[in-house]
Amino acid sequence: MKIAILTGAGVSAESGLGTFRDKDGLWTRYDLNEVATPEGFARNPALVHDFYNARRANCAGATPNAAHTALAQLAQSAHEVTLITQNVDDLHARAGSPDVIHMHGQLMRALCAVCAARWDAPLKMDPADACPSCGQAATRPDIVWFGEVPYAMDTIMDAVGTADLFVAIGTSAEVYPAAGLVELAKGQTLEINLEPSARANAFDDHLFGPATKVVPAWVATLC
Ligand code: BV8
Fold first, then answer.
1. Which residue of 152, 159, 204, 219 pairs with 70 in a disulfide if CB–CB is 3.0 to 4.6 A?
2. One domain for residues 122 and 137
């Protein structure tokens, strides 16, 4: 079976990485306009680097949980799995999932705003860092901020549109275009989340509960 999976912050919540929109989520403590937009970065690059440096340190100290591991097992099965994540952490890859599509970029990668070179980010980035390729002090986290176009949209839309099953896991479905992918699905659709998301009505089936319990149980029904 061809399966396209979209994950969000809920899949990493039980690894200790904060979600965005839950009670105590990141966007209740930070102004997303200041830390997750190109305009905010232009106004105060040091503030934005501090925000992502702290998240990079949290990510480096976190370990994949049972949901990440189960999805990696599913990728090893006879099913043809495309794993798309909105998460900027690297926990899917560290659990063993191959070819993860990071539609909102990656905390552990850096991007030059001048020449578009990419490289592994140091744990701590600074506005004065020079690009290893062109030498300009214009380095930023390789993150897709609000107002920027998410990565690999053609590949993602093709995977979702041709899948027998589309599954969204641990996402509130508040951010587009990720939240609209369910509309492209022609096969069965399943939402796995703690609670119904903003787009819950668009899904055929639902499994509610913590990802570390529900995802391994769901994967066990397929492998
Ligand atoms: C774009 C930076 C054009 C990364 C992030 C008005 C209407 C409609 C759309 C728009 C609009 N105004 C502007 C827009 C577009 C905008 C948008 O959607 N805004 C919203 C807020 C209205 N989108 C954009 O700007 C995007 N770009 O549209 O470009 C385009 C597009 C395609 C083709 C051509 C042109 C760019 C979006 C960039 C997003 N970047 N942040 C970072 O710092 O990490 S968004 C941020 O939200 C993260 O990236 C995150 O991944 C994403 C989604 O959040 P979730 O992962 O869903 O997390 P959340 O906290 O919300 O929810 C967690 C869920 O998990 C909850 O449901 C909870 O119940 C559940 N949960 C919790 N614990 C568990 C659990 N589930 C299971 N188990 C648990 N233990």
1. 219
2. yes
